[in-house]
Amino acid sequence: MRFEKRDGKEHLVIRQHWIGAESTANRKILSICEKDFTPVYHTSTSFRGPAAFEFQKGQVVGSDTTQQNAFKGFRVPSPEQSFNWELDLEFFEALPLKANTVYSINFYGLALE
């Protein structure tokens, strides 16, 4: 996890390598967010190929700039700001946790619908 300049703007970039008990569970993940974890782009690559998404105002769409994206043309409305479910643990770590505080967070599990 680090900050990188992309398109002239500093973003939080998270790279993950998930290794499962079987090679079919292995994934390489790239998530790009604003500094406050507002998602911009997410891709997960497995033996099936890439699954890439862009978080746009009011919707989550399959990226049309990622080659061989299995979710090209995917679109789901997201009238409320949603956060990337794939980053739930990283997101929770960044919250200012204190007694008697309740958070309501709108996570979206990418293409799980």
What does this structure look like?
With 113 residues, this protein is mostly beta strands. The protein has one domain. Helix content is 6%, strand content 43%. The chain contains 1 helix and 9 strands; from the N terminus they run E-E-E-E-E-E-E-E-H-E. Strands 1-2-3-4-5-6-7 form a 7-stranded antiparallel sheet, with no helix packed on it. A hairpin with an 8-residue loop joins strand 2 and strand 3. The longest helix has 7 residues. The two termini are 28 Å apart. The model has no long low-confidence stretch (mean pLDDT 91). It holds the Pfam family DUF3108. InterPro entries: DUF3108 (IPR021457).
Please give the number of β-strands.
Answer: 9
Number of domains: 1
**Whole-angstrom Rg:** 15 Å
Q: Give the biggest sheet.
A: 7 strands, antiparallel
Query: What's the helical proportion of residues?
Result: under 10%
Class from secondary-structure proportions: mainly beta
The CA-CA distance between the termini, in Å, is 28 Å
- Proportion of beta-strand residues: 35-45%
Query: Low-confidence segments, ≥5 residues, pLDDT <50?
Result: none
Strands of the widest sheet, in order across it, are 1-2-3-4-5-6-7
